[in-house]
Amino acid sequence: MMLLIRSGSGARVQLPRPGRALLRAARGLDAVLLRALAGFAALLVLVLIGVPAQADEIEPEPDPAPRVEPKLKAEPDPEPAPVVKKMSAGDEFAEPSWIPSVEIGFETFDYDTDSTVQNFINPPAWAGAQAESERQLMFRIGGELMGPIFEDLPGRPRLFAQGGVQLRTFSSDQVFILGDPSVPLEPESSTGRYVNLGDLGKTLPGDFDGQGGEIFAQFQDPSWYAGLGVAFSVPIAKNLLLYLKPSIQYSLEKIDMSGSLTTVDEPIPRVDPVNCPQTPNNPQSVPCVREFFIHRSRAYGRSTDHSVGPGLELALVLFRSVRPIQVSLYANARFMWLVSGSTTEFADPNGVAAYSVSRDEFAVRGGGGLRFSWVGFD
Questions:
Q1: Distance between CA atoms of 219 and 166, rounded to whole angstroms?
Q2: Do the beta carbons of residue 179 and residue 128 sit within 8 Å?
């Protein structure tokens, strides 16, 4: 098969079949290349036009702030959220800020004295000086108030205040005794004059029983105590809390004192007894009449003792989860100095005797008891 190609002169050229196929392929390839070039050029034009347009765009303005409508009526500020207490490790039970308590217990100490009795009638009979130590036991009723916890300090301390009264358990204490004044004189005489007829065998003043001196001291009810301190808490178990409570303590005590002296003397110059002459009314020879005089002294004094010193208490809170009342066991020790006068002197108005009682200026006191604390329901 032959392909005829017409030239510009009108002549036709005839090509064989393979040459025509190559010609058609060349024309198709040229068309594809032309279309590809045209598409690339169009894309390049679009890019060149779009970049400046994008660069010239204006950024959008931010949204305007929302309009605040004026309040027509004052509204109350919202209530603050409740503060949640920080609980340390081992502290599983929240405690209130203020803890009031009532306590009952006891206190014991030694009442050390140096006492003196002076006999102005016939010294030194039934007079002298003695040192005595009497153990005192006082019943205590009081209260305590602990303040808020300082969470950021070691031991989570609380400030506290204590106060209460003390009642004595003994009626009186004997701080001086000389002779046997509890035995009544024989015979008793309100006039103080004893006539010896000689047949009673009383020939000297010292022969009479019931002579001597003594001093008694008695604490008055009530006495008072108060203290200020800091309580450090130490959890030792799930339901046990230990408080260490150093403090400064003060106490006020009034003490009534009484002194007595009984002594017998005879007129001076002394006349030795001689036998009286025998008479019908006195058939036997007996000593003549002699006179002895009985002197009694009664005197009273009172001291007001003010004492101050440091103290330390250990308190164990039992069953911390129990509400609303917690029970604690406590024990304490106090080191007290007497800041008021330490010596009390008194005498009877008749000038028979004088008395003096001096207290030690330092004393160690200890005690313990139960404390009931209000901690609320939850």
A1: 10
A2: no
One-letter amino acid at 48 equals L
Residue whose pair of structure tokens reads 């196929």 in the numeric block: 21
Cα distance between residue 206 and residue 263, in whole Å: 9
Place of tokens 């079949």: 17
**DSSP state letters, 186-212:** SS--TTSEEEE-STT---SGGG-SS-E
Average pLDDT of 241-262?
96
CA angle 363, 368, 371 (to 5 degrees): 135
- As a dihedral over the C-alpha atoms of residue 14, residue 19, residue 25, residue 31, rounded to 10 degrees, the angle is -40
Q: Which helix (H) or strand (E) segment is 372 a member of?
A: strand 362-374
Answer positive or negative: Cα dihedral of 191, 192, 198, 199.
positive
Per-residue pLDDT, 223 = 95
The per-residue pLDDT for range 268-312, each reduced to its tens digit, is 666 555 555 555 655 555 555 667 788 889 999 999 999 999 999
CATH of domain 99-178+215-261+302-374: 2.40.160.20
pLDDT of residue 62: 54
Could you tell me if 116 and 126 are in contact, meaning their C-beta atoms sit under 8 angstroms apart?
no
| CA–CA dist 127, 119 (Å, integer) | 6
Helix (H) or strand (E) run with residue 229 in it: strand 223-237
Q: How far is CA 184 from CA 90, 181, 187, 200, in A?
A: 70, 7, 8, 16
Please give the structure tokens belonging to residue 219: 């604490």
Query: What residues does each domain of the chain span?
Result: 18-52, 99-178+215-261+302-374
**pLDDT-derived band at 70, boundaries 50, 70, 90:** low
| Residue 2 DSSP one-character state | E
Distance CA 224, CA 166 (A): 6
What average pLDDT score do residues 359-363 get? 94
Residue 345 in contact with residue 301, Cβ under 8 Å? yes
The count of residues in the chain is: 378
6-15, 145-154, 246-255: least confident range: 6-15
Torsion of CA 243, 249, 252, 253, to 10 degrees: 70
